[in-house]
Structure formats: structure tokens, C-alpha cells
Design a protein that fits this description.
single chain; alpha+beta; 4-stranded mixed β-sheet; 4-stranded antiparallel β-sheet; 10 helices; 52% helix; 15% strand; binds flavin-adenine dinucleotide
């Protein structure tokens, strides 16, 4: 076991940190208030290689390991978790899914521009009646000649308004239940594709989330990923890696909350002394720091398993379950350390709490993570 990062890991961490501080931080508060999508920042992230970090250089990616991606995600999310989720969806759901399950044609056509950050991707599984129960897909794909015609609605899609390419799960054979679901790459300009209104969210407000509509949306048969009937397995396998990205996003928020609390505790005086001298405050800071370290260890372990080709279902679920809980707890504790100042926009910690909550919900709620973990413990899967 080795707890040292390589020179390369440290370099990636440092460059993500510098970019986050210089290019993302200055506009984060305003974008949160206005719920404004960070188009220019996402473009720059692409130019720096942060949008296809784990994709092979053969397909325009940076060819890095999962730990590199996680270190960058933590630094970006520490400054703005909205940018974190945009990056996470493109890297660990869309690029990963296409690289692993796409044909050469799909990889050349779609993965290369996605990995280079020239195009943006979205992952479309959730529907009005299919959230935790993702098997309950109502979007239908009917085949006619060399095309599939998609009809249905997708809900809550991150990058819904901004993406160019959408990975869409749809039912190709209703009689087969979840074994009748398939995955398609849909372009924003395909006939019959539409975007619903942008959601007005509690947190990660600068990322865009929307519903999507498919009305006889005409998709070439060659745009199917993996094979017919494998869409549910595709979604579960891809979300498995995605959870490591969301764990990293949560760690970023948890660490930012902790650092803000330490800084404030040293500055704020009560009863003639800095509140950092009070044991009640010290205990909160100790708990916050310990939790961040635990979350990192779980997440780094999931990265190591993934990169060595071993199963990581349970570990990715544990990393997300724990890191997201810590993000919410640390944000709450940081507000407590800030007292009344923690409750207003002037200090960043109220945003950390609003941003933290979603990490317990998307890419599988905490309850679903517990089911995944329990299944692995009981069935050994
Ligand atoms: C901001 C945002 C961005 C999102 N981005 C995307 C995206 O890009 N792509 C995408 O496909 N989806 C996305 N989602 C959807 C997200 O993944 C779902 O909201 C999530 O999976 C939960 O589904 P649901 O909202 O339907 O809740 P439900 O499934 O209805 O769950 C409601 C409650 O019941 C609990 N519950 C349900 N089933 C069980 C069970 N078997 N055991 C115990 N408890 C259970 C849940 O844990 C939860 O507490 C996003 C959501 C949001 C809010």
C-alpha cells in the first residue's frame, strides 16, 4: 500500500487547483445567483484536457487514470460543484460509456470531439416514472429499416440544454422488461428531439438540468451502443464509475466547507478570543477533517480497484454514500462555525450546503447505494 501521489498526480492536482482559483472562482457566486451555465469555463476545461481525462489518446483523450480524474474533480468542485457535475457527466458517464461500449464508428464520430471538449455530452436514464427504479423505462424505440424511432420523456438531465450528444436509454422490447432496454447516441439536431424548461434548483444552480422530449426522434441504427437489450447493464456499469466522480464532487464540497470553517474560526473573536480556541469549535473542526480523510480513502480505494481492472461496485457505492453524507454534514457544521454569517450569501458556506444535498440524490440515492452495498455483501456480487 502506497499513500504517496506520483509526480503526475500532483501536477494534475495543481493545474486543476490553479484553473479553479483563477478561472472558476471569480464568477461562481454570480453564476449561482443567476443560474447561469459556465459556457466559457467548460470550453477552457476542454482545451486543458479535463473533459476526456480517462479516454485513450487514440480518441482524443488525456489517457489518465481514475485517481487523476478524482484529484481534478475534487479541486474543481471545491470551488464550484456546478462545474464539477458538468465535468463529471462528460468524463465518467458519457466518454467512459462510449469508449467501453461503442463501435469504432461511434468512437470516431462522437467520442473524439467529446474527449477533446469540442462537444458536450449528457446521460439520459431518468424519466418521470423511472428514477431509483430505472427498469421502469417508458421511452420506446421502434425499429423501421435502418432507423429507430424514439418516443418518450427524460427527466432531470444534467447538461440537458447545453449538450450536443445524448446517451439515451429506451425500450426496444417491452416483453423483456429491463432486458429489453437499449442505449442510443442522439444528436441535438436529430429530427423529433426537444428540450424542456430548465429546472430552478436548490443547488448546483450553474449547471443546467432539464427534461427532454422525443417525438418520433429518428436515430440511425448504427448509433446503438453495445447491443440491443444491453441498455440497462450499460447504465448500471457506467453509473458505477460515475459514482466515483460524484464522490469526488462531494469531497470537494466537504473540504471547502472545512477549510472555510478553519479560516473563519481563526479570525472570529468571541469573549475576547478567537473561537478557534474554544474546544466546542475544535471538536467540530477535528470531526470535519477526519471525515474528509475517510471519504478520500474510500474514494481512492475505489479508483485503485477500477484502474487495476478489479470489481468496484461495492467500493464505488460506499465512496459515494459516505462522501455525500460528509459533504452535507461538513457544510452544516461549517455554517454552525460561522454562526449568523454562515446563513447569508456573503460567505460561501450556505452555497456549499445547497450544493452538497444533490450528491445524496443523483447517480443513485443514498438508499440505493445501501442496496448496492448490501447486495454485494449478501450475494457476493
Ligand atoms: C439536479 C439533478 C441532476 C440529475 N442529473 C441526471 C442525469 O444527468 N441523468 C439522469 O438520468 N438522471 C439525472 N438525475 C435524476 C436522479 O438520478 C434521480 O432523481 C434519482 O435517481 C432519484 O430518482 P427519483 O427522483 O425518481 O426519486 P425516487 O426514485 O422516486 O425516490 C424517492 C425516494 O424513495 C427512495 N427509494 C426509492 N426506491 C427505494 C428502494 N428500493 N429502497 C429504499 N428507498 C427507495 C429514494 O431513495 C428516495 O429517497 C438528476 C437529478 C437531479 C435532481
Amino acid at each position: 500500500m502506497n499513500f504517496d501521489f506520483t509526480e503526475d498526480h500532483l501536477m494534475i492536482q495543481q493545474s486543476a487547483k490553479e484553473f479553479a482559483q483563477e478561472a472558476i472562482a471569480p464568477s461562481a457566486v454570480e453564476r449561482d445567483i443567476k443560474a447561469e451555465y459556465p459556457a466559457e469555463i467548460v470550453k477552457q476545461l476542454g482545451e486543458l484536457g479535463f473533459m476526456g481525462m480517462m479516454v485513450s489518446p487514440d480518441y482524443g483523450g488525456a489517457g489518465l487514470d481514475t485517481l487523476s480524474y478524482v484529484l481534478a474533480m475534487i479541486e474543481i468542485s471545491k470551488v464550484d460543484a456546478s462545474v464539477g457535475v458538468i465535468m463529471s457527466v462528460n468524463n465518467s458517464l458519457v466518454c467512459y460509456g462510449i469508449e467501453k461500449y461503442g463501435t469504432d464508428f461511434i468512437k470516431e464520430k462522437y467520442l473524439v470531439p467529446l474527449a477533446k471538449g469540442e462537444k458536450l455530452g449528457a446521460f439520459c436514464l431518468s424519466e418521470p416514472e423511472a428514477g431509483s427504479d430505472a427498469t421502469n423505462q417508458r421511452t420506446i424505440a421502434d425499429k423501421k429499416d435502418n432507423f429507430y424511432f424514439l418516443n418518450g420523456i427524460k427527466n432531470w438531465i444534467t447538461n440537458g440544454h447545453s449538450a450536443d450528444y445524448y446517451l439515451v436509454m429506451a425500450t426496444t422490447d417491452k416483453s423483456k422488461g429491463h432486458k429489453g432496454i437499449s442505449t442510443f447516441v442522439v444528436e441535438k439536431d436529430f429530427e423529433g428531439f426537444g428540450r424542456g424548461k430548465k429546472e430552478d434548483k436548490l443547488g448546483i444552480r450553474s449547471s443546467d438540468t432539464s427534461s427532454l422530449t422525443f417525438e418520433n426522434c429518428k436515430v440511425p441504427a448504427e448509433n446503438m451502443l453495445w447491443e440491443e437489450g444491453k441498455g440497462f447493464n450499460f447504465a448500471m456499469n457506467t453509473l458505477n464509475g460515475g459514482r466515483i466522480g460524484i464522490a469526488a464532487q462531494a469531497i470537494g464540497i466537504a473540504e471547502a466547507s472545512f477549510e472555510a470553517a478553519v479560516k473563519y474560526a481563526k479570525e472570529r473573536k468571541a469573549f475576547g478570543n478567537p473561537i478557534a480556541n474554544l474546544q466546542a469549535i475544535q471538536f467540530m473542526l477535528s470531526d470535519m477533517a477526519t471525515k474528509v480523510d475517510c471519504a478520500k480513502l474510500l474514494t481512492f480505494k475505489a479508483c485503485a480497484l477500477k484502474d487495476s481492472g478489479k470489481p468496484y461496485f461495492k467500493e464505488a457505492a460506499m465512496a459515494k454514500l459516505y462522501s455525500s453524507k460528509v459533504a452535507v454534514e461538513n457544510a452544516l457544521d461549517s455554517i454552525q462555525v460561522h454562526g449568523g454569517y454562515g446563513y447569508v450569501r456573503e460567505y460561501l458556506v450556505e452555497r456549499y450546503l445547497r450544493d452538497a444535498k444533490i450528491t445524496e440524490i443523483y447517480e443513485g440515492t443514498s438508499e440505493i447505494q445501501k442496496l448496492v452495498i448490501a447486495r454485494s455483501l449478501i450475494d457476493g456480487k
